[in-house]
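Lab manual, section 2.4: Encoding a predicted structure.

Procedure: take the sequence of the chain (224 residues), apply the prediction step described in section 2.3, and record the output as structure tokens. A sample record is shown.
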Amino acid sequence: MTISLAGRCARTGAMGGIISSSSPAVASRCLWVSSQGVVMTQNVTDPVLGILGIKLLEQGYGASGVISQLTCARPHIDWRQLAALDSSGQAQTFTGSQGLGIAATAIGQDCVAAGNMLANEAVLEAMVRGFESDPYAYIAERLLNALKSGLAAGGEAGPVHSAGLTVHDSDLWPCVDLRIDWSDSSVFDDLQGLWQRYQPQMRDYVTRARNPKDAPSYGVPGDP
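Recorded output:
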């Protein structure tokens, strides 16, 4: 039903995550990212676990402490699959006894992948290898490569319809927060196309927030 990967850029400290699912609007429920780390809550998901997990990261808990706290914090934990990655690059995971289909996790260098209803057990290792393959690329590109690699290895057992990509860099808000809430074609191609449209303007939107007088115009009505 869901595959996901959280990653950290060791060079810049940027944190990010990518996710896809057969369900609509998966990123709104399952992917939670801040400058302090990433929490992914999936399988039969409880979004509150993502909210609590981010708060715990911001309070200084590491990935292991976050997962330990979350597995005690909410009922029905046997139905949940969790993964956390903290700002030091440490990761921890949890898959309850009610994990759907082939449910697994994989931890790599500065990354962690999780999935359920997988086509096969090789999917998550492929995602990790995809993320690790080009450590000098911008983190959004590395995350997209991870998802592409996971889908190429089989992805989910069924068709994929939604996906999301989020990156926190050096501000309180995400510099990348892109979602495909439903696609009947190739959700990866749709997400990658949205990134390619957004990427050339990404830093300009940061400039608009920090120093508006230096921000470029895009030539739309009312924008001189």
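Check your result against the sample. Residues 2-214 form a domain with the Glutamine Phosphoribosylpyrophosphate, subunit 1, domain 1 fold (CATH 3.60.20.10).
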